[in-house]
Amino acid sequence: MESKKGQVAIFIIIGILIVAGVVIYFLVRDKFNPTSIPKDLEPFYQDFLRCLEDDASTGVAVLGAQGGYINTPNFESGSEYMPFSSQLDFLGTPVPYWYYVSGNNLQKEQVPTVSKMEKQLEEYINQEIIKCDLTQKYGEGFEAEFGKPAADVKISDNSVSINLNLQIGIKKGEDSAVIKSHKLVLDSRIGALYDYARKIYSNERKNKFLENYGVDVLRLYAPVDGVVFSCSPKVWNQNEIKTNLVEALEANTRTIKIKGDYYSLSSKENKYFVYDVGEDAIDKNVNFVYSAGWPTKIEIYPNNNPLIAKPTGNQPGLGVLGFCYVPYHFVYDFAYPVLIQVYDEKELFQFPIAVIIDKNLPVQGEIGEELGESENQLCRYMDQKIEVNSYNTELNPIEADISFECLGTRCDIGKTSSNGENARLEGMFPRCVNGYISAKADGYVTKRVLQSTNEPGSVNIILDRLYEIPYTLLVDRKESSDFAVITFVSEENSQTAVWPETKTIKLSEGNYNVSVYVYKNSSITIPGVKEEQCAEVLKPGILGILGATEEKCFDIDLPSQKLSNVISGGGKGEDYFIESQLEDGKINIGVDSITLPRSLEEMQDGYNRLEVQGVYLSFE
Q1: Contact status, residue 421 vs residue 399, Cβ threshold 8 Å
Q2: SS3 assignment, position 214
Q3: How far apart are CA 490 and CA 216, in angstroms?
Q4: SS3 sequence, 508-540?
Q5: Phi-psi bin for 193: left (phi > 0), alpha (psi -120 to 50), beta?
Q6: Which of 79, 142, 216, 520 could lock onto 568 through a cystine, CB 3.0 to 4.6 A?
Q7: pTM, rounded to two decimals
Q8: Enclosing H/E stretch for 497
């Protein structure tokens, strides 16, 4: 009996273990074998996994195309001062700038981290996976119920791992299964491309290599500073300068390369355009892209069109020089976007940055700081309301950009908005005594009105219309074909025309001083000068400190020069133009010729004569 009781106890224990094992199996089977489903249900689940792979792949591609973002940061528009918005439109795709200057002139940065990229990809998968189209499978008799998705993404150099917690109940006929966890590993180098993009960006922010290339383009393709030996003015058309700069920038930017297998710093052919960021792009390619159609700012100071550099040496009293020369110096503010693309055979990661050249030099400053002189502390405290209304001379509303100037500082205020009766802006201004409110509108002369903003108030600004008028230059009552520089200067409007290159000029109502200089081709040769000049200078050492001097002599050797153009006519005058003359008029500008100079002394006599010769203006 005791033996039989022992056998029964053993069977009971075995039975308990079997039951416990079955219970444990059903409790933990999903954790150890999450995708083990009946064979007849596999087609449905495989289609679901394809959806997951497609969504993850699409999300990774969007991250690469949009600078590490799927959901782009809040859009911030540019301004007249700085044309960049917070993102670059690249073939219809909004790509957030990693570095840009905002419309209110602040340097800003929006570089995503890997964790932010992972978070956005998780959110994207959660949103898209529930849209998975399994209609065909439902038509084949499958049924399914889905829970709430929760993705977990890890981005590494060569892969993207996705763990998706999403309960799916699948049923077809007598078969059913519940799957809670889904794993996927994408073969993707988005992490490595992003990491290299960060290296390029960090090097650019530190060393400003793109800005340095931009300065080189500026000095090679635009007049910046220099001297030309000539006795006639040197003239440049601003529009042509800007076109040349944009075209040169577009061509030169795409030639910039990063040192790697295909590009070596030792190569003479590519050395200038190959830049070393400290790590070779061995298994990656890098492109730098700029397009002429992208937002670009080119401002030239002085802001005259055309740009004119006047000669020195032909003025009265300077005949002792014995030669003429034209010095010029122009200042540029130059800003444009560059799209940097890092890619391999399968994937792309790209991001844009703004390249800023301020006063002919790469911009300085840190993120969050203001740039240039257009805005300082004064513009931060705009708390006084002023009403501005803008009209034309017929008192019709004209929408205009409004700015405020005080103590050398300019603040952008906004734009007047027309309701048909008025063009009004209720703007916030900084407090200032005797500042100037400026109104600027296309087709009108910019108007500045003296206004104190230390108290609330209103101001009406009337803008004078600009009329583009054809003109003809007459020398000795005959239309001239010679080169001439014609200048109209009034209190609010200054215009310069170069005849016969330009045959229209923009004028508004007002009183103008008019000057005309006409030049002809010449073969005058000014002989070279070689002479010795002496001057008293301080003696070296202690004697010099005590004021003792000695005579030092210097050799001056000026080569001979052949003048290509000399003054041949012109004059100066003054006249008042009214709108009725300008609306449909054409101006005849008449001057007298002078005897063509044959020497530098005669040329200076000619300039003296032009000071008293008149200009004859008539309208047709």
Answers
A1: no
A2: helix
A3: 37
A4: CCEEEEEEEEEEEECCCEECCEEEEEEEEEECC
A5: alpha
A6: 520
A7: 0.66
A8: strand 494-499
d(CA 160, CA 63): 12
Q: Using alpha carbons, select from 481, 501, 470, 497 the residue that is nearest to residue 569.
A: 481
281 or 146, greater pLDDT: 146
pLDDT in tens, 110-128: 999 999 999 999 999 999 9
Alpha-carbon gap, residue 294 to 341, rounded angstroms = 16
pLDDT level of residue 154 (50, 70, 90 thresholds):
very high
User: Do residues 617 and 516 make contact, with C-beta atoms less than 8 angstroms apart?
Assistant: no
The per-residue pLDDT for 476 is 94
Task: Give the closest residue to 184 by CA, choosing from 28, 60, 280, 308.
Answer: 60
Query: Residue 505 and residue 64: Cα distance in Å, rounded?
Result: 50
CA angle, residues 524, 527, 528, in degrees to nearest 5: 140
User: What count of Cα atoms within 13 Å lies in the side-chain half-sphere of residue 246?
Assistant: 15
Residue 325: C-alpha distances to residues 227, 566, 597 (Å) = 7, 13, 17
Distance CA 361, CA 215 (A): 7
User: What are 485-514's pLDDT values in tens digits?
Assistant: 899 998 888 888 889 888 999 999 999 999
Structure confidence at residue 32 (pLDDT): 36
In single-letter form, the type of residue at position 273 comes to F
For residue 220, pLDDT beyond 60: yes
Give CA–CA dist 380/377, Å, rounded.
5
What HEC string does 8-77 produce?
Answer: HHHHHHHHHHHHHHHHHHHHHHHHHCCCCCCHHHHHHHHHHHHHHHHHHHHHHHHHHHCCCCCCCCCCCC
Q: What's CA 246's distance to the chain center, in Å?
A: 11
| Backbone φ and ψ of 583, nearest 5° | -60, -50
Q: Would you tell me how many other CB atoms lie within 10 Å of the CB of residue 386?
A: 22
Domain 383-463 has CATH 1.10.600.10: no
CA-CA-CA-CA torsion for 597, 603, 606, 611, nearest 10 degrees? Answer: 160
> Quick one: pLDDT at residue 317?
46
What are the CA-CA distances from residue 420 to residues 391, 392, 394, 398 (Å)? Answer: 11, 13, 14, 10
Helix axis angle for 190-207 and 114-129, nearest 10°, is: 140
| Between residues 80 and 7, the one the model is more confident about | 80
pLDDT at 34: 44
pLDDT at res. 187: 92
Whether residue 183 contacts residue 163, with contact meaning beta carbons closer than 8 Å, is answered with yes
Length of the chain: 620
State CA 512 to chain mean position distance: 37
Residues 268 and 260: their CA atoms lie apart, in Å, by 15
* 82 against 220, higher pLDDT: 220
Looking at per-residue confidence, does 552 or 178 come out higher?
A: 178
Give residues with Cβ within 8 angstroms of 119, minimum separation 6: 153
The CATH T-level fold of domain 467-524+563-619 is Immunoglobulin-like (2.60.40)
For 92, the enclosing helix (H) or strand (E) is none
DSSP 279: S
